[in-house]
Amino acid sequence: MKLLSLSIKSFRSIAAESIDAQGHNVNIFGQNGAGKTTTEDAFLWLLFGKDSADRKDYDLIPHKPGETVPDTGCGREPVVEAKLEYFGKTVTLKKSYIEEWPKRGEMKGQYAGSKVHYFVNDLEVKAGEYNSVVNELVDPDLFKLITNPHYFTETLSWQERRATLVKIAGELNVDPGKELLTMMCGREFDNFFALAKQNAKATQKELDGMPYAISEAQRLIPAELPVMPDVAVLEKQRAELENQIQTLKNDDSANAVRREIAELETQIAEGRQKYNAGIEAENKKIQDGINLLNFQRREKSDRLSDVEYQIKSLEKKVSDLSDRKTEKLVEYHRINDSVWKGDETCPTCGQPLPADQIESARTAFNTNRSKKLEVVLAEGKEMAEEISTGNETLEKLRKEFATLDSEVTVLTERIGKGTGMLKPCVYETQIEYKQLSGRLVDLKNQLEKGTDTGKNSKLDALAAELDGVKQQIQDSERIEILIKQIENQKKHVIELQDKQKQISSDLGTWEKAVALCEDHVKKQARALETAVNGKFKIARFRMFAPQKNGEEAECCDVVYPNGSTNLSTGERLQTGIDIINTLSKYYGVDAPIWIDNAEGVTLPIETDAQIIRLAVSPDDEKLRVEVQE
After folding, report:
1. Any keyword Ribosomal protein (predicted)?
2. Is 517 exposed, middle or buried (0-12, 13-18, 19+ CB in 10 A)?
């Protein structure tokens, strides 16, 4: 794509500007604020509706002198028109930003904003049709890559740069190796790599919890067991005692009274059971509601504790960052206040040093101080951003904490009210019980008065002995259950230990898979590095950067042929143009390259694309345009 002509009217600070480029390179000179960058913004707005800062329809109408509001109502409506050549064809694009003034109603005579009008080859069209024409010329995202020398190297993330280079490099065909292929089992590499990292992390977490699980399981095994009695002997004793008691009771003349007592006790038991069942049925719905509220309160309380922990952790982090930021500010002022104190005389002969040598030393000192200030300032800004983000998160967490605390309080109150609504199961308050129990007391008194005291004493003694034997039998049953539980618990410990071994083995497998995948990624990156670097004249790329710990971190850094990543302005521009040349060749399209601050660049620029240089010129109060034919 070539720019043949560009006409700008009433666009921001530009009253009128016309460039008749005819596809040639263009130099635009002017003082700071004369409108050089505005010229580029106008061209970008014409194509995509955004300026070089990616702002849509931003501040287009010129301002009133000394004010920050648009100078509306004076007919100063921005218009940008360009004639472009692409693939042997020409097209004229035009946009106008027209003020709107309502003609009737309450808003009559008041400025109501502006509306964009679109023209293609002098014919007004709708926005969708206009954008379709622009998209036929070049994709908006691709346009940024092939017109801004710094966009690829300084705006794109390293992942986006690498993805673009992968497209350019084409199929690399790096062999993963037999072992990794076997592990992948037909999966795509990226899918398997993600799976391996996921499983390695999960397996490590599971393995970390195994020692505690084993220790807890072992803790449930008692060191000593009670002695197991002879159950057969105890059962024989119980049978003998029961026979003795029954024989003694059958020999009593008061059997009829005892039978009635037994019947009354049965009636009382059945009445109590029926009454309790009715009360429990009435309480069930209330209890179900209480159980649900208890569950909700536990969930809220657990989340409340988690949020409280997050708040404390984040408050400490923000406090630490604030302290570090203060230290960075002190460091910044210390560096900024430092002055050059170099010698101006020769230490050997005592003669004054040449002025150029003194100036060179002073310049080196100032350059080094500026670099240090840039580093400290960048670190301080990064900390400020982290502090701001942390405070925003803290505000959200505190609001969530207050909400949760209030919800837990409300749930507790509701649980208390529900509990108070439950009816107690007290059968003894019923008339039926009072009648039956009264009769039962009378019969027992009657039986007590008509029974031989000696026989009663003997029955009491036999009953006490029988209770003791029954208790020993119950104890033996509990001991037997405990022994079985201990045996099962020992088996469980062995199972956990076996599981720990298996998890450890699985972790080794997944960690090996991760290591193989990381090695394959490095091989791919090296292959990509080799393949890509052959497609550029100047730019070189490195896919791994050395770390202080001796490891390598993935990256996609742009380097100069000498291996340096600290490039001068001219070198960065040369490298950016070289990248644009390769991208234009790969995608089969080029576009005018806009170079801002071009006055500071003296290195040659080699490209087939049209160049539009924006250079500061103190002598040019108004824009001066030179076309290089």
Report:
1. no
2. buried
